[in-house]
Amino acid sequence: MKFFIHIDDISEANRKFAGDKAFNIALLKQSGVNVPASVALKTSACKDYLHSSGMDTFILRELKRKSLNDYRWEELWDISLRIKNAFIRHEMPTNMQNKISAYIKDSFGDKPLAVRSSAPGEDGQNSSFAGLHESYINLTDTKEILKHIRLVWASLWSVSALLYRRQLEIDIFKSSMAVLIQEVICGECSGVAFSKSPDNSQCVAVEAVYGLNQGLVDGTVEPDHWNIDRKTIRICDFFPASAHNKIVIPAKDQIIVEDISPNTKSLPPLNTEQVIMLADEALRQEKYFGHPRDLEWTFQDGKLFILQSRPITSPDNNTDFKYYDNLLLSFEQLKKIRIKLENEILPGMLKTGNEWKQKNIKDIDESDLLDCLVERGKEYRHWLKAYDEYCIPFAHGVRLFGEIYNSKLNPEDPYEFVDLLRTGELLSLKRNQKIFDLSRSLLVQHNDVEILNTIEEIFGYKYKDMSEVPDKLLNLIETYTDVAKPEYCKNTMEELFINSFADEQKTSAEELLDLGKASYRIRDDDNIYLDGVKRGLESIIKEASRRISADCFNEEQKTVVEKELAVGIPELHSPNINNNDKPLYDETIKFRQLVGQPAGKGIAKGYARVINKFDDLFAFKKDEVLVCDAVEPEMTIVAPLASAVIERRGGMLIHGAIIAREYGLPCVTGVPEATKKIKDGDLLSVDGWLGIITIL
Fold first, then answer.
1. Under a CB-based contact definition with an 8 Å cutoff, are residues 250 and 186 in contact?
2. Taking the model in full, what pTM does it have?
3. Which residues have CB under 8 Å from 197's CB, separation 6+?
4. What's the pLDDT at 154?
5. What integer pLDDT is reported at residue 320 of this predicted model?
C-alpha cells in the first residue's frame, strides 16, 4: 500500500514521509518500550488529496491575499477557519478512501483508533509543535476516521501552527503532514513526564490524571504533580490536585468528561512505584535520544505504554510559546474566564467609567487634579491589562463554538454559526436603538430636557438648551428615522445544532451554545465598557492640558503633569503594520481593486465615506460605505446608515465586523492602507463573500 508505512518499517531513510512523531514511536518500539499498535499515513497521501481536490489552489488563494507577515493573528484565525471548513466539506477521492479504509481495517479491525499529526520537523530539538497540530482519539466509524484524517491535515494551517511557522521563518507552502494512526490504549490513569523539569532542571517532573490524557492536555482536569531528583531517583515534592472530581473516558467516536467515582477521589492516580518507573523511563529515553524528553504515557492493567515522545525544546527557541497556548483554551477554562469577566472585570470597568463621568473635574484645585490625573492613568492601565488578559482570550469562545458547529453541520458558509450567536443584546445595538427613539422624539417635539439628557447619555455632550445642539448632530440623529432594525430568526438553527449531538451530549451542547453567545456579546461589549474608562482619562488629560497652557501649576506639579501627559493613553489596538511615514505605493496611482478578508456576507454598492477622526462621522449620509482604519466603539452610531463596512484592521471578531453582521452589511476587513487607497466619494462595489472591493 503506497500510502502507508508500518511502524516496524519506519527508519531514518523514510522519516520525512512518516513524520517525526511516527519516527519517534518507531525508535521507542525498537528500544523495547511498549507502544500502541501503529501505522503512518505518508505525506504523499496529503499531497495527493490536496491536488486532486483543488485544495492546494484554495489554500494558496487564502494565504496570498497579502504578505504573510502583514496578517494579524485574528486574520490568520479566519483563514484557518475557512481552510478547515473546506477540508471538512471536501472528501477524499473514492479510490483513496477505499484504499485507506481497507488498510486500516486489515491492520486494526474494529478497535478504537487515535489519529495524530506527524509532520516532518514537528518534534525537533529546535522547535516544538506540541498542541499546534491536531490529534483525535477514540474513533471507530470509518467515515469519522477519514474525516479526522482530513482534519489532521487541515491543522497544518491552524492559526497556532501558522503563527509558529512565521515566527521560525519556516516556509508554509513547503510544509507537509503525515498521520500517525494508533490503537487507543484506555488506561486507568495517564499523564506526561519531563526528563528535565521546565521549572527545576535538577528534577524529573511527572503529572497524572485518572482516565485518558486529554483532560490534562486541554486543561479540563487538574493533574497531580511529582518532582523526582534526577540523581537519586527519589521523590522530592508531591503537589496533589486540589480535587479529583473529573475523569475523561472514551465514548462512541468521541471522549466525554464524567464525575470520578467516590472511592478514588481521595487517592492520587499513581503510587510511588509507578512514579519512580516513569522517572526511570524518562531518563532512559533522555540517554537513548541524547537530549531531554517530554513523554505522554498511560498505565493499562499496571502496564506502562508510551503514547508519544518528543524533545524538550530550548527556552531560548520557545520564548513566545505561551502566546500560542492562549489560542488553545478549553471549554472549562473559558467558563472560568466568563465568571471573572461577568462578576468582576466588566462591572468594575462600568463602575469606574460612571464614577469618572459624574465627577466635575473643572471645579477641583490643581493639587486634586494632579492626584486625579495620576490615579486615572494608573486605573486605566489596570483595566487595559485586564482587557488583554481576560477579554481577548474569552473571544476564543466564539472560535471554539464555530469550529465545533462547522465540524458537526458541515455548512457551506464557514461563518454560518455567527447567525446563531446573534441575540440583539449588544450594548452598541441598544445605544443605536436609543438614537432611533431620539430621532422619533425630535419629529414629534417631545420634552426638550428629556431630549438633551438622552443626547448626553448617548454622545457624552452636555447642552443647556436645544439651541446649543449643533446642526451636524441633529442632522445625524434625524437620519435615523429611515433605518431598518436588525432581524433575528434562529430557532431552526439552534435545533439543528443541538440535535447533531447524541442524547447524552445535548446538555453539553446547550452549555457550549450559551458560552458562545456570551463570548460573542462580550467581545463587542467589552470595547464599550473600556471606552467609558478611556473617556474619563481623556477628560482629565484635556483639563490638565488646559491648565498647563494657562500656567496654573507650580513647577513641581507641572513636571508630574507633563510626565503623565507624555504617557498619554496607551493604545488598545496595534497600529498599522506599515510604520513608514511614506506610503508603500505611488500616491498618483488610482486603484481599481483591493483585496481583504471576507467578514460580512453580501454585496453592496455605495459612495465611500472615509473616517479619519470622530468629527468625520457627522458628514455620514445614508447608504454610504464606511471606510476606516479601525471601527472604534463611537463609530458604530453610523452603522445603521451604512451600505457596507471596510476596515484596515482585520478579523471576523473585530468591532466593525460584528456590528456589520448585526445590520446585515457586507464587510471586508484587513485591507492594507484602506483609508489612503480609497478616497471620499469613490463609488465602490463591496463583496463581503470574497473580500474584494472594486472602485467603480
1. yes
2. 0.84
3. 203, 204, 205, 227
4. 94
5. 44
What was the pLDDT predicted at 316? 46
pLDDT at position 581 is 43
* Closest among 291, 280, 267, 288 to 234, alpha carbons compared: 280
In whole angstroms, give the CA distance from residue 246 to residue 265: 9
Q: At what angle are helices 43-53 and 55-63 packed, to 10 degrees?
A: 80
User: Comparing C-alpha atoms, which of 77, 212, 76 is closest to residue 137?
Assistant: 212
How does pLDDT run across 139-182, given as a tens digit for each residue?
999 999 999 999 999 999 988 888 888 887 788 888 889 999 99
How far is residue 100's CA from residue 693's CA, in Å, rounded to a whole number?
43
CA nearest to 27, candidates 211, 290, 253:
290
Altogether, the residues listed in the chain come to a count of 696
Closest CA to 499 of 412, 405, 400: 405
What pLDDT sits at residue 445?
A: 65
- Cα distances from 658 to residues 311, 382, 499, 569, in angstroms, run 42, 26, 27, 25
The type of residue at 510 is E
470 neighbors 452 (Cβ within 8 angstroms): no
Burial class, 147, CB count within 10 angstroms (exposed 0-12 / middle 13-18 / buried 19+): buried
pLDDT value of residue 490: 63
d(CA 466, CA 274): 80
For the chain, list residues with pLDDT below 50.
125-127, 315-324, 574-582
- CB-based contact 4:41 (threshold 8 Å): yes
Cβ contacts of residue 545 below 8 Å, gap of 6+? 565
DSSP 302-357: TEEEEEEEEEPPPGGG-TTHHHHHTT---HHHHHHHHHHIIIIIHHHHHHHHHHHH
